[in-house]
Amino acid sequence: MRTVIQGGRVIDPAQQTDRVADLFIAEGRIVGLGRSPSDFTPEQVIDAHHHIVCPGLIDLCARLREPGQEHKATIASETRAAAARGVTTLVCPPDTDPVIDEPAVLEWIRRRAKFAGQARVLALGALTYRLRGERLAEMAALKEAGCVGVSDGGRPVTNARVLRRALEYAATFDLTVFLTPLDPELGNGLAHEGPVATRMGLPGIPVAAETGMIARDLELIRDLGVRVHFGRLSSARAVELIARAQAEGLPVTADVAIHHLHLTDMDLTQFDSRCHVRPPLRGRRDQEVLRTGLASGVLTALCSDHQPHEPDAKQAPLGDTEPGIAGLDTLLGLSLRLVQDGVLPLPALIERLTWGPARILGLDSGHLGVGARADVCVFDPEAHWRVEPGSLNSRGQNSPFLDWELPGRVTHTLLEGRMVYESTRFGP
Amino acid sequence: MSTTHIQLDAQGRLLHFLTIEGLTYHHLTEILDTAESLRGVAERRVKKLPTLHGKTVVNLFFEASTRTRTTFELAAKRLSADVLNLNIATSSAVKGESLLDTLRNIEAMQCDMFVMRHPQSGAAEFMARYVKPHIAVLNAGDGRHAHPTQAMLDVFTIRRHKPDFPSLQIAIVGDILHSRVARSLIHALSILGAGEIRVIAPRTLLPAQVEDLGVRVFHHLADGLRDVDVVVMLRLQRERMEGALLPSEQEFFQQYGLTEERLALTKADAIVMHPGPINRGVEIDSHVADGPRSVILEQVTNGIAVRMAIMSITLGHHHARLTGEET
Questions:
Q1: Test the B interface: residue of A193, A196, A199 with most B CBs within 10 Å
Q2: Of A193, A201, A270, Cβ closest to residue B144
Q3: Which residue in B234, B280, B284 sits closest to B257, CA to CA?
Q4: Does residue A293 have a pLDDT over 60?
């Protein structure tokens, strides 16, 4: 299929492109920007006037709940939601059931994703067997099978000896290690430790539950020189630790979940279980420093930390609910709000959603250079939509952003040149 | 904190009784005055009023309790209500039906009031959010969050002995971190304009930035007790030793136990309170618990009148709302 996307404002951070131009696609790849390649007769024309044309978004952390928790969501349901919001690549952590610690599980996920055909699904393999933090997982086999990295899957390795060896072993096979720093003992609580948790009688999670782990991990990284990505930072102090490590030249990157840039612990004052997340929502200053960190590039990626739930999982007193927000549907809209809030300019924001995560993953993706895979998102930045239960595509309706007005309506999503989403005139 | 709390109707009247936080001086004095007028009922030959005749009150206890449940039961019976007691022991390991299912089932039995105790903070607000509009929810303790009827009976007891709150210095001693009693009492005392509220505990038993609640923090009992008018001792749960919060009961008693010598540091007419059940020799010495300054058993008696007051006020507002009457 030969496609031309006409007249849009093309933002491709990898090439530092930001101009109105036509984008030409053939055989699933980008074949030209601005000037038509010779002999190019389009079979499909997409009118993108007054729209933004950018690489398809890459979401570094999205739980698709399959295999193991199909009552919450499926690969088919969530990849469809992704396509409708301009996300073309999803990275799922290894804490599925069974855990992604052997190639067969990855193979199964890949088959399901291929069958669904709505988005590219990549997976992180387990760092340790069954994510128990005791024995190493078969990382070489996982890499050969196609895992794009290895991860603790939200269950930090508390044993420093095991972690050190796992880091070394992963580095042997040139695997990036994705860690989620939150000490399980110190982090055994429900809300950011501070006045709000005190007032509400919710067990607190101190900032040190996060920074203590990061500090330990950074010391191991300094010794070993291994490449590590820290996922879902929540505190100002964590951003400062990562910034200092980067300034020293350590090979570390980090991301933040979009909800940490819009919510704080104050949003828990009604015991709203939709705001129950791990790591917890922290204070106003933490949010400001996370925003600054995203703008300065200390945080190189912005992700949804998508965790869809069935209604029952959230309908209970806060402490009896499962943590997590279904974030895929609101990733782009909430991100664009950061531009409105003056946090960072639009091209930089697009970078944190595309080329930034692609570089963390070491992928030739997330850009619109000639020859690149044609994963493209077209959206109308001026069109606003209201977050309502009926407007969410994910199976998970657990969003604390209901009733928010968000900018950015996706009109077209292309996956390797193939249209996986096109908005109807009246639809979302 | 919120503009309209779920426990109030549009006119600011109590529909549920979930937390002291956010209530006004007027709310509290209305309860205290009503309780005062109901206190005489127990002295009568027939200890009953017809206020809740034909109403059904369900005591829904997800945590063990004798005193609180019994006084709620007595309060309901003295108001002529029918009472159903449900003790649902749960552990996180063995999950039974969901709270929402329990709620729907009891609702189906056509009840008018839920009195609930639950180990999770926010459980009472959760119930209030989901119950049918004619049902009142009374919080009998939710996690570490609130125990508002206990706070009301505490301030009721204080008021009977020392009615001038602005002149009072009150010390709350012990496990503030895990205490819903302390949180609710601090709010109630602040609303009533208490002169000074002190908390006395080791740092491990104080929640982060507790000063934000409007209290003065002391770590040493002798400093904190000096010249106070009221001492409120909190119960120390045995499991605190396992969580590495304290080394031993003995050491706790040595540092924070209320003895006669330490009581001598307070004002000469200071009263000693405890929400019960007391651990003799852990947080309080028997001589003090049974001594002349102790009003611990009076608290239990007052608990009935205070709970009667709260039950009649909330159900009265429900009735008014449903029939469109003004109260």
A1: A199
A2: A201
A3: B284
A4: yes
Task: Return the axis-axis angle of helices B180-191 and B148-161, rounded to nearest 10°.
Answer: 50
Helix (H, G, I), strand (E, B) or coil at A128: strand
A305 part of the active site: yes
CA dist A39 and B307 (Å) reads 86
What kind of fold does domain A56-361 have according to CATH? TIM Barrel (3.20.20)
Q: What is the structure's pLDDT at B66?
A: 85
Domain assignments of chain A as residue spans, ordered by start: 56-361
By C-alpha distance, which of B85, B84, B83, B79 is closest to B53?
B79
Separation CA A173–CA A168 (nearest Å): 9
d(CA B271, CA B163): 13
Provide the pLDDT for residue B326. Answer: 52
Domains of chain B in start order, with CATH, are: 25-147+301-323 (3.40.50.1370), 148-296 (3.40.50.1370)
- Distance from C-alpha of A274 to C-alpha of A397, rounded to nearest angstrom: 10
Provide the CB-side half-sphere exposure for A264 (13 A, CA).
15
- pTM across the whole model: 0.94
Question: Looking at beta carbons, which residues of chain B come within 8 Å of A316?
Answer: 98-100, 120, 126
B5 or A183, which is more confident = A183
Concatenating the DSSP letter of every residue in A161-220 gives HHHHHHHHHHHHTTPPEEE----TTTT-SSEETTHHHHHHTPPEE-THHHHHHHHHHHHH
pLDDT tens-place string over residues A95-151: 999 999 999 999 999 999 999 999 999 999 999 999 999 999 999 999 999 999 999
Q: How far is CA A368 from the centre of its chain?
A: 20
Give the model's pLDDT for residue B238.
Answer: 77
- Condensed to tens digits (0 to 9), the pLDDT of residues A182-231 reads 999 999 999 999 999 999 999 999 999 999 999 999 999 999 999 999 99
Please give the DSSP secondary-structure letter assigned to residue B13: -
In chain A, DSSP finds a helix count (H) and a strand count (E) of 11, 19
C-alpha distances in Å from residue B4, one per residue of A32, B174, B185, B189, B248: 58, 33, 21, 22, 44
What residue of A is the nearest CA neighbor of B243? A185
For the CA atoms of A402, A407, A412, A417, the dihedral, rounded to the nearest 10 degrees, stands at -100
- Provide mean pLDDT across the span B109-127: 95
- Please tell me if residue A158 touches chain B, with a CB cutoff of 8 Å: no
d(CA B6, CA B142): 16
Q: Which residue has the tokens 């997409």?
A: A46
Q: How far apart are CA A42 and CA A8, in angstroms?
A: 16
> What's the complex ipTM?
0.92
Q: What is residue B198's predicted lDDT score, i.e. its pLDDT?
A: 98
